[in-house]
Amino acid sequence: MEYSKDLSIIIPLLNEEESLGELLAWIRSVMNREGYDYEVIFVDDGSTDGSWKKIQELSEGDPRIKGISFRRNYGKSAALYHGFAKACGKVVVTMDADLQDSPEEVPEMYRMIVEDGYDVVSGWKQHRQDNKLTKNLPSKLYNATARKITGIKLHDMNCGLKAYRNEVVKNIEVYGEMHRYIPYLAKNAGFDKITEKPVHHQKRKYGKSKFGLERFVNGFLDLLSLWFLSTFGKKPMHFFGFSGLLMFLVGFIMTIWIIIAKLVHQAQGIRYRAVTDQPLFYLALVAVMLGVILFLSGFICEMISRTSQDRNKYNVKETID
Q1: 312 phi and psi, to 5 degrees?
Q2: Rounded to whole angstroms, how far apart are CA atoms 168 and 294?
Q3: How far apart are CA 283 and CA 228, in angstroms?
Q4: Domain residue ranges of the chain, discontinuous segments joined by +
């Protein structure tokens, strides 16, 4: 497949007016030194400062500088989604606009994609320049959980500095807050040559971080959602059906136990409480009802899944005509 550029650099941003000029000058210096044919795509995610005006100024007279401006803040995933759609480079690189990601890392990441054959190269901020208590420790716990659930051995899943083969970004859909898990989305789409590269991380020079501690809680919930959808999205009956059968079986066993206990006590002439007076009876009833509901939910989800699969596009690697 032919591409019009060697590199597409996508930079999502929110209120980063002060850093944009310096960042672009740094990118131009590296790109010119390496001789790349490149484009820079700024995606303004509803900034309220002068970021978009600054992007317009920077793009004057330089067709390599492109921009997308949202009417309001939609989030980083939406910014990357539109940036990916516009990218026409053989390799697509994403980086943050706050000058904490170094463009000097791009040439080696490009080489790892083009020469080493990787689909995704993720940055690894080995020595973070953030507050150790509020950023480093939660980040380590978060990444350890992500490695366990996704099976992808990356130390820094959420690093903004990443490089992708163009086919990867054209065959995944980034939505919600799933920008944190693009390597996992790529893996689920069949692009499993994923690695990482230690990158230099700098202290923020201008402004302040747009993310708080809540991003780790939200990120964990998004990870569970993504894992569930990727594991059971095409076979929901495997989850709901199994859970329903298990609950029904538990309720059924409890019911049989109550009946047998009553019969034994009656045969021995021992007084026995009425079945409806026992808490175990109601627990059994709830378990049976939950089992039936879960099983029926599995049937409904399975029907929806089958219908949606008929409309889905499948990721075809290559064809021979």
Answers
A1: -70, 150
A2: 36
A3: 28
A4: 5-232, 236-310
Q: Which pLDDT score is estimated for 315?
A: 55
- Token digits for 275? 């079945």
- pTM score of the predicted model: 0.72
- Spans of the chain below 50 pLDDT: 311-312, 319-321
What pLDDT, on the 0 to 100 scale, is given for residue 130?
A: 58
Spell 300-315 as b/e; 16+ CB within 10 A means b. ebbeebeeeeeeeeee
The CATH fold assigned to 5-232 is: Spore Coat Polysaccharide Biosynthesis Protein SpsA; Chain A (3.90.550)
The tokens describing 175, both together, are 């939505």
- Terminal Cα distance for the chain, rounded: 16
Residue with tokens 């569930």: 228
Question: Which residue is associated with the tokens 């990787």?
Answer: 118
- For the segment 202-250, what is each residue's pLDDT rounded down to a tens digit? 777 776 665 555 666 666 677 777 677 666 766 778 888 888 889 999 9
| Tokens encoding 216 | 């780790």
Token duo for residue 321: 């005509």
| Helix, strand, coil fractions of the chain, as percent rounded to 5 | 55, 15, 35
Q: Can you give the pLDDT at residue 320?
A: 46
Distance between CA atoms of 136 and 139, rounded to whole angstroms? Answer: 5
pLDDT of residue 26: 96
Strands of 5-13's sheet, edge to edge? 65-69, 38-44, 5-13, 89-94, 162-165, 120-124, 194-198
Q: In the prediction, which pLDDT does 112 show?
A: 97
Q: Rounded to an integer, what distance in angstroms lies between the CA atom of residue 155 and that of residue 69?
A: 32
Specify the 3-state DSSP secondary structure of 136.
helix
Tell me the three state secondary structure of residue 233.
Answer: coil
